[in-house]
Amino acid sequence: MSSPSTSAASLSERLQDVTEALAAARTPEEVFEVVLEPALDALEAIAGAVLLVGASGDRLEIAATQGYERGAQTVWQDGPLDGNVPAGDALKRHEPLFFEHEGDLKRVYPELEARTGGVAAVATAVLPMFLDDAPLGTIILDFREPHEFTPPEKRFLRTLAAQCAIALGRAQLGRDLEARVAARTAELEEERAALDAFVAYKEAVGGESDVSVLARQALEVVRANIEHVSAAYYEREDERWKARVWSDDIPPEIVAQITAGVSVHAPNYAEAAHSGRPVFVNGWDGRANGVQHAESYGAAAFIPLVIRGETYGLLSVGTRETRAWHEREQALVRAVARGLTVTLERTAHLRQLEVERAELAARTRALEGFADLTRDLALHDDPYVLIRRAQQVVLSLLPDGYALYFEPGGDRWVKQVQTGELRSGALQAVADAGLPYHEAGNLFTPYTTLEPYYQDQYAEETDHLDSEIVAHIGASATFPVMVGGRPRGVFAVVLFGRLRPWSGAERAVMETVVRSLGLALERAEGVGELARRTEELARSNAELEQFAYIASHDLQAPIRAVTSFAGILERRYGPLLDERGRLYLRQIVEGGEHMKRLVDDLLTFSRVHTQQRELSAVDSQAVLNRVVGRLREEAGTQGATISGRELPVVRADAQQLDQLLQNLIANGLKYHREGVAPELHVSARRDGAMWRFAVSDNGIGIEAQYYGRIFEIFQRLHGREQYEGTGIGLAVCKKIVERHGGRLWLESTPGLGTTFFFTLPET
């Protein structure tokens, strides 16, 4: 057995030298050289090796050896990282393994020599290396003779393994940084080339908006920057991708195939279109993609042009030799495709703006035209006049054609309005006679679905008409005319000629006009209905007022007769009657007098409208003074006071203003509190263009729930046995105020008094 030949001090010095040398090492190879030789020399080992964990993390690989004969078979070989080998066991245990005597290694790992074909050394040290707690590899030292590892040697070896791991990590980091720098440099170079291609393309297209020109420029930029390639631009048509533009070098037989179209299910075309991402194929199979004569192309690229989430087209590039796509080439093709996509998107946006502007202009023209025809709506409440004008507006904004309007009538569609000639006597006869309700699909469909029905080419089976009488008809469009949320009829527009798709602007024109027509018809119905109701109400009011006037006037004579004869009976025959008879006579007289007052008040109520005078400037103070003079005697008996000063001049009917003030003041005198002398005050203040008057009293007051009721005719809050009256006075006041364009209302506190407010116009 060999004994340690190196002191602890010597090992420490050697370790210091190794640490300094490792600090200068830049590559793993330099690290291995620095570590193995001092270790072998310090412990007098015959050979050593370094095994590192592979990139996959499940294998050990020989990284460096020293001291073994060239070609010699050892037990230290590449192999799986598991616990059946010493290196794997040391990494698993996180501790070094020391085999000091001959046979120790074979006893622990009996299959090691048989599996590797090598011969184990007499003594061995297996030193695991970890970096940030991750297994990095092992250092192996083999001895020719038994070797007892002293504590200083073990410390030396552990420290050496740790220093080696740190140095290897630093070297690997440096190598990774160099690789990243190189990769990033390559990326920047590819991006620069792609950017140059993108700039070149943008400069080439400028403000161009023609799709074929834009695509050709893209193909030329690709071919100018990548040698020996062909290119084509495809657009989808139905179930095929059809080439619209292609490079001049593509053989005629292939041009014929790609212009006829490649199936949308062709594998590479479909993958690019569905994924929305570029597809680069290094070994392209043209036959599998339906391009039979494309065997000469080795690699192919398919770049989708995605606009607003949909694949608008495909840019295809093929190499004329079998090879792989370079990163620079892929970046360049992507850049050109991106530039073409941006340009196409801009072009599509500009075209959409043009379409929207055209539709807006069409709608504006339609609205202006319809505004002209509805401006005199008040003069024309005939709906068919409005419909004819709407037809005229539509036809003035469309190519040659005619317009019809039908309404359902029983089991047929009845033609109500026509503008323009049908250019067929037979077709005119059919339209005049009406069409079967369920068979006329051009009318039935929009009427029941409440949606427009467009045909770019009128189909004769739509209305089950003879093909000969509709052969000259082209596009047709029918619309439900909605009035009050329900379809009233169908507005039909027909153009002459062959197939002609309806444009967005034309649809906007017709839908705008028909929608406006429905509103106009609804408004016309409302205006007509309002006029009829207003006329009926005016006639009814006039008749009612005339009836009230005549009835009350004619009642005067019999009432006077009853009252007079009852008085005569009482005077002449009263002494002959008993008390009951005299009571009956008094009731007849009182009833007659009340009836007379009722008729007088009814006459007053009716005269508010039947005997109107022109409104003029009236001094309301003078009117109040006259009213107070007439009521002075009645007020004096109650000890009442009536005041009011500096009242304004207003625009009024003087006689009706007199009636208004008298009724309100008399009302205050009548409804006074028991034992409290009535106090009434009249005032006025400006309220905008009106004067607001207030007539206040200190009477019994009115509860809030009766505020509206007291202004209704014949409505009384108290019986005649409490307060005499007919219930017409306040109704007359309300009617007078409203006749002057004012408003009458009140505020009251029960037990304290009431204030009536009314407004009259200023002069």
Task: Give a quick rundown of the structure.
By secondary structure, the protein is α+β, with helices and mostly antiparallel strands. Helices cover 48% and strands 22% of the residues. Helix 6 packs across helix 7 (211-225) and helix 10 (327-374) runs parallel beside helix 14.
Describe it.
This protein has 763 residues and is an alpha+beta fold. Helices cover 48% and strands 22% of the residues. The chain contains 19 helices and 25 strands. The strands form five sheets. The chain has a six-stranded antiparallel sheet, with helices on both faces. Strands 9-8-7-12-11-10 form a six-stranded antiparallel sheet, sandwiched between helices. The protein has a six-stranded antiparallel sheet with strand order 15-14-13-18-17-16, with helices on both faces. A hairpin with a 2-residue loop joins β7 and β8 (240-246). The longest helix is centred in the C-terminal third of the chain and has 70 residues, at 504-573.
